[in-house]
Recover the amino acids of this structure.
């Protein structure tokens, strides 16, 4: 008999049992989620839903609870209109949201045991426990965050019968490191891109590049870069903290680190990266906007990360979610993702699903808004 339970802290869950589950994002698992939980992100509460068969853990996923402003993924006049209404009515267009996943991951965080034969049934059991907890927390809007295209059939079987419907989200970009060196990589790019990148990389002699895990001495400066980037962003959901930026590498020694960029003695950028035996994941790049732009730091960091992949024998570089036009120019492939959602009130649910295309991320290259993880 399957049973489900919900924990308020990941510390209540055995790490080995959580890690034994199979998930598409193994780097953003127990240790990473623990760092997120302990980072003190304002406005968020955490839950962890588990499905068990006796003593065997069959499935688990993180959950976040927060107030969600409907204009978060809007751009243009609609966003300005909703923000204007909120100045007069602060609670207008805000819903209490329960989301499966984490605001700091690119997936719903779902792990399922490789022994499970009926994955839709186990996911349905997990979703039932998720919704029970969401209702107890007075949430009206339920969302399953960033489901990648290979997992769509599973969610279609388990979530659609409950009333969930998908809405386009930001795709996942990935670059296959199936070339021997940077020269071979350059040879794959178009002539115009190759020429442009070589010109941009002429700034390298002006920079000092440092790889390290401990950033306590520069955390405040990096946080300043983040705050400025977040202020410029069209879409910003979570607000990260110094405890997050310091806690991730502390919780994941050998699997999380920073690449810092210096102009002389001045720090002008930092890139938080996660790594396992196969993949390098770019979580956040934080840049001094004026100096970073002048020194082409976004592109310098890209080629630095590709070089790290080559040096460490990694097969895939996964950059952040945004700036897709540049990523396609530089050889990435994109995997579609979607947010599955429903509202507990059938009338509100019908209206939201009718107008959901207005709130979906515009994922066409060149039309995707700058996020707080890219500049």
């Amino acid at each position: 008999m399957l049973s489900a339970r919900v924990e308020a802290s990941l510390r209540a869950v055995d790490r080995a049992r959580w890690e034994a589950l199979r998930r598409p994002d193994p780097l953003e698992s127990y240790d990473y989620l623990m760092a997120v939980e302990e980072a003190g992100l304002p406005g968020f509460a955490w839950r962890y839903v588990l499905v068990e068969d006796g003593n065997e853990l069959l499935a688990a996923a993180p959950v976040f609870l927060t107030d969600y402003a409907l204009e978060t993924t809007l751009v243009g006049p609609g966003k300005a209109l909703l923000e204007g209404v909120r100045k007069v009515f602060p609670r207008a267009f805000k819903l209490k949201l329960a989301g499966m996943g984490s605001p700091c991951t690119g997936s719903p965080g779902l792990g399922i045991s490789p022994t499970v034969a009926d994955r839709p049934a186990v996911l349905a059991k997990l979703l039932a426990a998720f919704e029970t907890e969401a209702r107890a927390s007075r949430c009206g809007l339920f969302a399953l965050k960033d489901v990648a295209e290979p997992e769509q059939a599973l969610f279609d079987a388990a979530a659609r019968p409950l009333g969930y419907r998908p809405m386009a989200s930001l795709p996942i970009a990935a670059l296959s490191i199936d070339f021997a060196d940077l020269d071979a990589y350059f040879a794959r790019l178009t002539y115009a891109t190759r020429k442009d990148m070589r010109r941009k990389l002429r700034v390298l002699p002006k920079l000092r590049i440092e790889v390290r895990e401990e950033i306590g001495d520069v955390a405040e400066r990096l946080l300043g870069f983040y705050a400025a980037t977040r202020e410029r962003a069209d879409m910003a959901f979570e607000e990260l903290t110094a405890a997050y930026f310091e806690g991730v590498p502390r919780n994941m020694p050998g699997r999380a680190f920073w690449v810092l960029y210096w102009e002389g003695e001045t720090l002008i950028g930092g890139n938080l990266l996660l790594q396992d035996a196969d993949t390098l994941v770019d979580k956040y790049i934080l840049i001094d906007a004026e100096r970073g732009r002048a020194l082409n730091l976004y592109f310098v960091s890209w080629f630095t990360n590709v070089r790290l992949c080559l040096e460490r024998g990694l097969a895939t570089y996964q950059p952040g979610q945004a700036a897709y036009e540049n990523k396609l120019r530089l050889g990435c492939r994109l995997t579609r993702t979607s947010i599955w959602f429903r509202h507990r009130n059938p009338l509100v649910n019908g209206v939201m699903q009718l107008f959901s295309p207005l709130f979906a991320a515009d994922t066409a290259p060149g039309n995707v808004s700058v996020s707080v993880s890219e500049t």
Q: What stands out?
A: Residues 119-136 form the longest helix (18 residues).
